[in-house]
Amino acid sequence: MSDDQSEGTSAMADALSPRLDGGKGTVLGNEIQAKIGQHLRAMYDDVVRQGVPDRFLDLLAKLDKTDEVPGEGGGRK
Amino acid sequence: MSRFDPALRDEIIAAIPNLRAFAISLSGSVDRADDLVQETLLRAFANISSFRPGTNLPAWLFTILRNLFRSEYRKRRREVPDSDGAFAATLTSNPDQNTHLDFEDFRTALDQLPSDQREALVLVGASGFSYEEAADICQCAVGTIKSRVNRARKRLGEMLALDDVDDFGPDKTTRAVLAADQP
């Protein structure tokens, strides 16, 4: 999502790298941090995979075709 | 005739799934999240002239969404998510039982984080923004974002270690040794 892909990737990798306590993590801490990263992305990606709901495509189509903002009168139903 | 640059419109559409996921993590409710995304799209198109082509469109949209949420948040506290959690309501897959239990613990822990830590963790750890982009979106210093992400990870780690200690590798003896090694 970054214009600078390498920077975005490195920040994500840094945030999700299995370290805890400034690198002094235990094996247990490492495993948990890895799981945190996996779960976070799994949850997020599950929503992302649902794509774009029709209500938003309909909204954008209306915005594109009318001069009025929907809901302010003059917009198509 | 289209009112908007089709390429820009396509880019906005492409950002919607990510906006929804971020909005759900902020609001704790799928319905409120979708309302937030709708309001964000209306604002974005109404203010499209203030977007500078070539700059970071997703970050611009995320900033709008976050500002909308914050202004609403000041009026009413974040609603307590239902017991299944907002993300649970969106789950389309049917994970096996172990994964499901892990998810339950994780969601519960995530919901307990302070909102500024949760949003920083999601932006950097899931949305894929750099620390710098996340700082722009949250209108704070890069160091503040780093600190929030670190505190979020540490806090989640502590909560999950307490809850799930039996789910993770080492047996009790090994854990006792590991714990004794802690500074």
Short description:
The complex is a heterodimer of chains A (77) and B (183). Chain A is mainly alpha-helical.
Give a description of the structure:
- The complex is a heterodimer of chains A (77) and B (183).
- By secondary structure, chain A is mainly α.
- Chain A has a domain at 5-50.
- Chain A contains 3 helices and no strands.
- Chain A starts with a helix and ends in a 12-residue tail after the last helix.
- The model of chain A is unreliable at 2-10, 17-24 and 70-77 (pLDDT under 50).
- Chain B is mostly helical and 183 residues long.
- Chain B folds into 2 domains: 1-80, Rna Polymerase Sigma Factor, Chain: A (Orthogonal Bundle); 95-166, Winged helix-like DNA-binding domain superfamily/Winged helix DNA-binding domain (Arc Repressor Mutant, subunit A).
- Chain B is 72% helix and 0% strand.
- Chain B is built from 9 helices and no strands.
- The longest helix of chain B has 23 residues, at 142-164.
- Chain B is elongated and about 65 Å long.
- The chains are: A mainly alpha (77), B mainly alpha (183).
- At the A-B interface, helix 1, helix 2 and helix 3 of A face helix 1, helix 2, helix 5, helix 6 and helix 7 of B.
Query: Helical proportion of chain B?
Result: over 70%
- Count of individual domains of chain B: 2
Oligomeric status: heterodimer
| Major protein interface | A-B, 51 and 63 residues
Termini separation of chain B comes to: 67 Å
Under the CATH scheme, the architecture of the largest domain in chain B is Orthogonal Bundle
Shape of chain B: elongated
Query: What general form of chain A does the structure show?
Result: rod-shaped
Question: Which structural class do you get from the secondary structure elements of chain B?
Answer: mainly alpha
